[in-house]
Design the sequence.
């Protein structure tokens, strides 16, 4: 279990010493902090001791051999010894790491990563990449039992959609980059940890990023491009959610957003309230967090809600306010 220690803060609402895998880094405070609340809340920490290497070591299963990728981008490292420090194919009893700047490619014919765990990134300045390459249409499922993104990125290497099974833990800032093909994180998977996600997906409705399950990550979500479908209660964890550009967030559960979350829409963003009933959130903005929308019930134009906005669509409603029941 890793420990995140915040020594001092400036310009943020709250700091605390916390366990990075079970507690939020920052308790939400829904007031204007800057012109872009979501994106600046983390960088405004003046001194942040993360002990990244220490955290990475502690996330290795007890008794597991530590193996790192020494040669990046090879076509077969996912299932052979090529590029690994022990020169063996991934195997049970070992924990694997791709350090910052490294790239690990998946490939057709090996849908399961056999190692006990896989960490993409080590918390350094440069991110590491898990490139989903050559997963063909007939074999879309990829299983990594314990995947940690530690300033890491999952990215599509072609236009095929990947169905991911296995658990994902987030540390620091991470990216899902699927502007070519889609990603479906299955209902059996849980995304956990204190880290955040930036998501870029295809604009096509046939290949969005889809979260099917109940997730617990607390670092927040930014939808930077494309479409994100969230199907289950708790699908977006407990953090704030920000949309930018011409992105679309489709909520298929009235509890997909945590009731303590703030929802920031950019000037071209759309939220589809594809559920019946009301979703409770603490704050809402239609200009990226510069100003807050009025408290009360919000819905699509013509919905009969107290407040409407053309960038809200669908039959659902948002009940907005810090004291919402």
Sequence:
């Amino acid at each position: 279990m890793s420990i995140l220690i915040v020594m001092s803060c400036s310009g943020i609402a709250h700091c605390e010493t916390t366990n990075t895998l079970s507690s939020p880094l920052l308790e939400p405070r829904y007031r204007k902090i800057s012109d872009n609340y979501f994106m600046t809340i983390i960088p405004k920490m003046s001194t942040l001791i993360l002990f990244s290497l220490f955290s990475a070591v502690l996330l290795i299963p007890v008794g597991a051999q530590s193996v790192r990728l020494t040669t990046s981008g090879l076509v077969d490292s996912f299932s052979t010894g090529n590029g690994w420090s022990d020169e063996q194919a991934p195997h049970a009893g070992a924990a694997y790491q791709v350090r910052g700047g490294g790239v690990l490619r998946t490939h057709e014919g090996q849908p399961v990563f056999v190692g006990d765990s896989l960490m993409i990134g080590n918390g350094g300045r440069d991110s590491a990449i898990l490139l989903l390459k050559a997963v063909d249409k007939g074999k879309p499922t990829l299983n990594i039992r314990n995947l940690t993104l530690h300033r890491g990125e999952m990215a599509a290497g072609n236009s095929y959609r990947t169905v991911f099974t296995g658990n994902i833990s987030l540390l620091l800032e991470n990216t899902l980059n699927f502007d070519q093909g889609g990603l479906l994180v299955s209902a059996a998977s849980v995304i956990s940890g204190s880290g955040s996600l930036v998501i870029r997906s295809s604009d096509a409705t046939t290949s969005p990023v889809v979260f099917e399950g109940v997730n617990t990550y607390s670092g927040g979500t930014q939808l930077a491009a494309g479409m994100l479908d969230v199907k289950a209660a708790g699908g977006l964890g407990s953090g704030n959610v920000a949309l930018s550009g011409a992105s679309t967030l489709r909520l298929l559960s009235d509890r997909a957003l945590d009731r303590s979350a703030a929802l920031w829409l950019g000037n071209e963003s759309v939220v589809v309230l594809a559920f019946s009933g009301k979703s409770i959130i603490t704050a809402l903005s239609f200009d990226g967090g510069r100003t807050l929308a009025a408290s009360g019930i919000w819905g699509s134009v013509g919905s009969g809600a107290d407040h409407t906005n053309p960038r809200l669509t669908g039959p659902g409603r948002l009940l907005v306010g810090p004291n919402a029941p």
Notes: The mean pLDDT is 82. The helical segments are 37-40, 52-58. Residues 266 and 288 are 5 Å apart (CA to CA).
